[in-house]
Design a protein that fits this description.
Helix content: 25-40%
Structural class: alpha/beta
Strand order of the largest sheet: 2-1-5-6-7
Largest sheet: 5 strands, parallel
Order of helices and strands: HEHEEEEHEHEH
Distance between the termini: 20 Å
Number of helices: 5
Oligomer: single chain
Shape: globular
Number of strands: 7
C-alpha cells in the first residue's frame, strides 16, 4: 500500500469499524498530545486502553493503564502508537503476538516505519502512518470545520448522530 497518502474512504472505514483502541505511549500529563487524543477518542465513544509502563496499574482519564499490549485482557481493534519510529519494530513484534490480531496499526503524526508496516500488513493488519485519528475523525465528521479549519471534505448531507459528545460520526463518502 502507498503510505504517502490515504483515501478518505480507507480512513473512514477504519474509524467506523474499530471500537477498542490500545494507545501505546499514552500520557497522564494533560498537556501532552497523547492525553488529549485519548480524551477526544473516549468522548467519541471509543474504548481506549492506555499503555504506559510508568503508569501501569493507575488510571488515566478513568481508564486502567497497562504496561504492555499483552497485558490487556480483551481483544483490541486498533493499536495507536505515540512513540518514536525507532520503537515501532518492537511494538509490532508485540502486536503480532496478540491473539486475536488487531485490525489496524496506526502510527501518530511524525511516526513512520515502512519495514514494520510491511510486517503488519503481511499479517493482514491495516496500517496508517504519520496521521492522527483525532484529526482524521474531526476532518471526516466535519467537526474540524467548527474552528474554521478547511477539512477538504464537502458535503450537503445531514450529519448522522452517533453516541458521544457532539459526535456526528464519520461518513464513508
Amino acid at each position: 500500500m502507498n503510505h504517502d497518502s490515504y483515501d478518505n474512504t480507507y480512513i473512514a472505514g477504519i474509524l467506523n469499524s474499530v471500537k477498542t483502541i490500545a494507545m501505546v505511549g499514552a500520557s497522564a500529563n494533560d498537556v501532552r498530545p497523547s492525553y488529549f487524543v485519548l480524551k477526544y477518542l473516549l468522548a467519541k465513544g471509543f474504548s481506549v486502553l492506555p499503555i504506559n509502563p510508568g503508569q501501569a496499574g493507575k488510571e488515566i482519564l478513568g481508564r486502567m493503564t497497562y504496561a504492555r499490549l499483552t497485558d490487556i485482557p480483551e481483544p483490541i481493534d486498533m493499536v495507536d502508537i505515540f512513540r518514536a519510529a525507532t520503537a515501532v519494530p518492537g511494538i509490532v513484534d508485540e502486536v503480532l503476538r496478540l491473539d486475536p490480531l488487531p485490525k489496524v496499526l496506526w502510527m501518530q503524526l511524525g511516526v513512520r516505519h515502512d519495514e514494520a508496516a510491511a510486517r503488519a500488513e503481511a499479517a493482514g493488519i491495516k496500517v496508517v502512518m504519520n496521521r492522527c485519528p483525532k484529526i482524521e475523525y474531526g476532518k471526516l465528521s466535519g467537526e474540524i470545520g467548527w474552528t474554521g479549519v478547511n477539512s477538504g471534505v464537502l458535503s450537503s448531507k445531514k450529519p448522522l448522530m452517533r453516541s458521544g459528545y457532539q459526535s456526528f460520526g464519520v461518513r464513508q463518502k
